[in-house]
Amino acid sequence: MRLIRSCCCRFLFVARLQQQRTFIQMRTVLKVVDNSGAKKVMCIQALKANKKGARLGDTIVASVKEAHPNGKVKKGKVVYGVVVRAAMQRGRCDGSEVKFDDNAVVLVDKQGQPIGTRVFGPVPHELRKKKHVKILSLAEHIA
C-alpha cells in the first residue's frame, strides 16, 4: 500500500513540473499591468476568440477582484481587457516562439481605448496586428 501511495505522489509531482500552459478561459485570474486602479481581474468570457479561450491580443470580459482604493476602477466592476502577456506559447513568423511567465491584461473601454495612461512590463509586438497600437505606444518595453 505504501509503495503505491509514494508512486502516485511522485507522478503528481512530475505532472505539476510538466504542466501544460493553456488558453485564458473562464475563471482565469489575470494581473493588470496598467495604472487604471485594478490589481487582479478574473476572466468571465473571451470575445471573438477561439472556442477554447483567449490568447495574446484577444479581448476578454473580466470582473475586478482586487483594486487600489483610489483608482479609476473599483472592485466588482465588469470591464473589458486586452491580453498583453500569456503563459501559453505563441509562434512567430520567423519560427521563434514567445511566452511569458504570467498572464497579464490591460483594461480598455468598449471602443478599445486603454483606461490607464501607462503600461508596465514587456508587451509583444503581435498587438500591432490586432489593432492595439495605442497600447503599444503606452508600453515601456516592446518584446
From TrEMBL:
**Does the keyword section mention Translocase?**
no
Coiled-coil boundaries: none
User: Entry's Gene3D superfamilies?
Assistant: Ribosomal protein L14
**Which InterPro entries does this UniProt record tie to the protein?**
Ribosomal_uL14, Ribosomal_uL14_bac-type, Ribosomal_uL14_CS, Ribosomal_uL14_sf
Give the superkingdom in one word: Eukaryota
According to the UniProt entry, its GO molecular function terms are: large ribosomal subunit rRNA binding; structural constituent of ribosome
Biological process terms in GO annotation:
translation
Entry keywords, A to Z = Ribonucleoprotein, Ribosomal protein, RNA-binding, rRNA-binding
Name the GO cellular-component terms: mitochondrial large ribosomal subunit
* UniProt KW Kinase keyword: no
Q: Which family does it belong to?
A: Belongs to the universal ribosomal protein uL14 family.
Return the PANTHER family for the record. 50S/60S RIBOSOMAL PROTEIN L14/L23, LARGE RIBOSOMAL SUBUNIT PROTEIN UL14M
Name assigned to this protein:
Ribosomal protein L14
Question: Lineage, please?
Answer: Eukaryota, Viridiplantae, Streptophyta, Embryophyta, Tracheophyta
